[in-house]
Sequence to fold (252 residues):
Amino acid sequence: MKITESVKDNVSQVYIKGRFDAHTCETVDAYIREKMEKGRHQFVLNMEKVPFIDSAGLRVVLVIARDLRGEYQGDLRFAILQPAVNKVFEISGLNNVLRIFDDAETAAQSFSE
Amino acid sequence: MRQSFDFPADTSVLAKIGELATETGRAAGFNDNEINDINLAVSEVCTNTITHGLKNDPTRTFQLVIQWNTGEIEIFIHEAGEPFDPPDLKDPDLEASLEDRPVRGLGLYLLRNLMDEADYRVGRDGVKTWRMLKRKAEA
Ligand SMILES: Nc1ncnc2c1ncn2[C@@H]1O[C@H](COP(=O)(O)OP(=O)(O)OP(=O)(O)O)[C@@H](O)[C@H]1O
Ligand SMILES: [Mg+2]
Fold:
């Protein structure tokens, strides 16, 4: 799992690469939570290079989004879900409660609406 | 065709198991979507086996058996860890708001949704076995 970040207009684009599963989800969790502690509360998770997510990955993003919305008026939003990942969001109903965009730019702009 | 593997209870093996499921799924003639389903289903059960059944103890192992013919794949996961009686599994509430949503219990729900058959039994020797099967949809 590789993670990189770029920040623009207070929105953090977090770009992850690799399987997002029970083995790697803690890396993503720790990475985003460290940024949260430093005061960042608007995130876009760019999933273009994520071919696979499991229930452990879903739990991590769900709990982070919940914490950001509940405690900081922030959010974790999503850009570019691969078909396999999109299907898992749909089966689990997470697409109803999380905000998902087709491209990273639109996802980032959604924070200034 | 039948292949059998032993893995230590360490989540680092999940990627390898995904590769095995992909290879056999392809050999059995499944398409990419179906292979993704098989991949996730086997991953969920193996994650449960590793984390709940064997408590992430890498000195303990579990067995993965994959059997396939053209258009059909059947996977068994055998493990002798923590006893477990699947309660009457009820589906998680997918309509719940983000705040009220349970954060556990998705794994077995995904399993049941992705495979044609999924069942569980405990042998007299205490070995727990999950079995799952997927058939290729008729063209
Ligand atoms: N192999 C196992 N050994 C012991 N207990 C198990 C096993 N598999 C599942 N369980 C129990 O069944 C419950 C439901 O499993 P399920 O995979 O649906 O949810 P989960 O693992 O808790 O969370 P997740 O949504 O991440 O999968 C688990 O919480 C665990 O208590
Ligand atoms: Mg699970």
In short: Helices of chain B lie at 14-27, 32-53, 106-114. Chain B touches chain A through 29 residues (CB under 8 Å).
